[in-house]
Structure formats: structure tokens, C-alpha cells
Design a protein that fits this description.
Elements (H helix, E strand, L loop, with lengths): L8 E7 L13 H7 L2 H6 L4 E7 L17 H21 L2 E6 L5 H11 L4 E5 L20 H6 L11 H4 L14 E6 L4 H9 L3 E4 H7 L1 H12 L7 E6 L21 H13 L3 E7 L8 H18 L6
Parallel strand pairs: 1-2, 1-3, 3-8, 4-5, 4-7, 5-6, 7-8
Helix pairs in contact: 3-4, 8-9, 9-10, 10-11
The structure holds manganese (II) ion.
The site of manganese (II) ion has 5 residues, from loops.
């Protein structure tokens, strides 16, 4: 499929959600991206952006841990709202850009994009695999679990008070096949996740592969593996912690040894060149972490990624 060059409509969905992890401030990422010109910058490219406003995430009373899983009801309810919004946007516009928020929002974005484009491949750009099941998660933070839900790797929540509670995430469609998912940028992967990636032969390119082959070859290899015929729509789920903290310091779980500024931009440019990108998530920009300069640089990095993914070129 190719997107018409004439009427490229783009919906910006803001998902200011921080309940998938413990550091406040990531819910302020979207406003900072908007304040630094996100919508205007998109409008200067070949897109007609529509900002759909900030999604609201009503608090959940008595959202006690289930086992060690934190904010389980809040995350379930909020990501379901995101799912509905993204499904609607992806059905009605050419491109859906969702700005977070922590990476738990991808439970909703991936499921929503898959509802409109069931054959879309997902490129998950991240230092982490976000593939822990709630049971395998050591932290109990659900931003480390979205991929497990989408693949259907999770089981009912352990130590729940009722069957209903154990099934809190039962609404998430198991919309991804192992062969639809590719990682780039990994460098902090838990034992359960490593085993799952190996056993299920998931396309995973760590920073080792970026060092070995270069980013251009890695992007090409990832797309070739997931879609050898180069026909399928692409959903890019970009966690800024994939980037080295030198360039994107204001993020909740930074890991040294990440993508450079240009490697990250190149990745987005190369995906844009396919003409098949239909959705992007930009997550884990937390302007409350580090100082104001670091926050500005991180937000500027995020804006560059979006522009590159939407076709901005250097020449
Ligand atoms: Mn992530």
C-alpha cells in the first residue's frame, strides 16, 4: 500500500499517561511537545494535522496492587480509552501520531492501529523489550509489559481477589503475531524476555547489531524480515530511551550505549522512505527529569524523530 500524496490527513492523539511506571512528569511530555511546535512543524510537511486534544484518564479509586502489579485498574481502563481513540483515528485518517506518556499506552495504540490495519508490522524502538508478562516483571510497572499483552503471552493476574480482577487485561486483543514484531535498539533485556525472543524467533536487533552492521543495514534487515514483499503498513513505536541519554536524557529508564541523534533520525527517515508508515508513537519523554536544558533537548529530539518519520529530509 502507498499513502496518497494529495490528502495525507494526520491525527495527533495526546495520551498524557504516567500510570505504567512510577516517575511523575512523563504525563507532561505531550504538552511540552505541543508547546515546542509539534503541530505547526507537522503542518509544514506534506500533512494536514488535526490535534484531537488530550485524552482524559479519570483516576481509579482503591487501585491497590494485584500481586506486585501497580495501578492495574488505572492502566487497564486508560489504555482501553487510548485503544478506542487510536482505532477511530486510524480508521478515519492516513496517519495516527500518539504522543505519550509512558510506553504502557502502546497497549492501546498497537491494538487500535491493528484494528484498522491488521497486517501492519510493528517496529518497536527501545532500550527495553517491554515484553515481560506481569508475572515475569520484577518491578510490577506495566510500561514493561505492553508487548506481552499484545502477543497474548500474559496469563490472568496472579493473586487477584476475583476472576474479574484477574482478567483486567482480558479486553486487549491478541492482535500481534510473533512475526509482526521487530525490535531495534535493545540493550537492557530481562532473562524472561531474552528467552521469549529466542524461543519465538522474534526479529530483534540490539545495539550490538547496530554497532556491527550500522543502522541503515539494521533497518533494512528488520523490514525485510517482517515484510519481505514490502507491502505491509508500518507502525513505529518509538521509546526515546532507545536513544543514548547523551541526546535524550529526560526519560524514566535511561540506559547508556544507545542510538546517536543521527542514528535515531536515520531510522525514522528510512521508515518514512518506504511510504508505508501509518502510525507512530512517541513515548517516555519526561520533561520533569534532569534539568530544563536536558528536558528541552529531549523534547527537541522527539520533535526531530516525528519530522523525520513524516518525510522531512536534510536536502
Ligand atoms: Mn519502552
Amino acid at each position: 500500500m502507498t499513502i496518497s500524496q494529495k490528502s495525507r490527513s494526520l491525527t495527533v492523539i495526546s495520551a498524557p499517561f504516567s500510570g505504567g511506571q512510577g516517575k511523575p512528569g512523563v504525563d507532561d511530555g505531550p504538552q511540552h511537545l505541543l508547546d515546542m511546535g509539534l503541530v505547526e512543524q507537522i503542518g509544514r510537511l506534506d500533512w494536514t494535522p488535526k490535534f484531537a486534544g488530550h485524552l482524559q484518564f479519570p483516576a481509579v479509586k482503591n487501585d491497590t496492587n494485584i500481586g506486585h502489579v501497580k495501578n492495574p485498574r488505572y492502566v487497564s481502563q486508560s489504555t482501553k480509552n487510548i485503544y478506542e481513540a487510536v482505532k477511530k483515528a486510524s480508521t478515519s485518517s492516513d496517519f495516527t501520531l500518539t504522543i505519550g506518556g509512558d510506553h504502557s499506552i502502546a497497549i492501546g495504540t498497537v491494538a487500535g492501529v491493528q484494528a484498522a490495519h491488521p497486517d501492519a508490522i510493528v517496529l518497536w524502538i527501545d532500550a527495553h523489550a517491554d515484553l515481560n508478562t506481569p508475572a515475569a516483571s520484577s518491578s510490577g510497572n506495566l510500561h514493561g509489559c505492553p508487548v506481552a499483552f499484545l502477543l497474548g503471552a500474559d496469563e490472568p493476574l496472579a493473586n487477584a481477589a476475583s476472576k474479574e480482577e484477574a482478567d483486567l487485561f482480558g479486553w486487549v486483543p491478541h492482535c500481534l503475531d510473533d512475526s509482526q514484531l521487530g525490535y531495534i535498539g535493545l540493550r537492557d533485556v530481562d532473562a524472561f524476555e531474552k528467552q521469549y525472543i529466542r524461543e519465538h524467533k522474534i526479529a530483534a536487533f540490539s545495539m550490538h547489531h547496530v554497532d556491527k552492521y550500522g543502522i541503515a543495514s539494521v533497518v533494512e534487515q528488520a523490514i525485510n524480515k517482517l515484510d519481505p514483499e514490502h507491502k505491509r503498513p508500518i507502525h513505529l513505536s518509538f521509546d526515546v530511551d532507545a536513544i543514548d541519554p547523551v541526546y535524550a536524557p529526560s526519560t524514566g529508564t535511561p540506559v547508556r550505549g544507545g542510538l546517536t541523534w543521527r542514528e535515531a533520525c536515520y531510522l525514522c527517515e528510512a521508515v518514512a522512505e518506504t511510504g508505508r508508515l501509518v502510525a507512530m508513537d512517541l513515548v517516555e519523554c519526561n520533561p520533569h527529569l534532569e534539568d530544563a536544558k536536558a528536558a528541552r533537548e529531549t523534547i527537541a529530539m522527539g520533535l526531530s524523530l516525528v519530522r523525520c518519520a513524516l518525510g522531512e529530509t536534510l536536502l
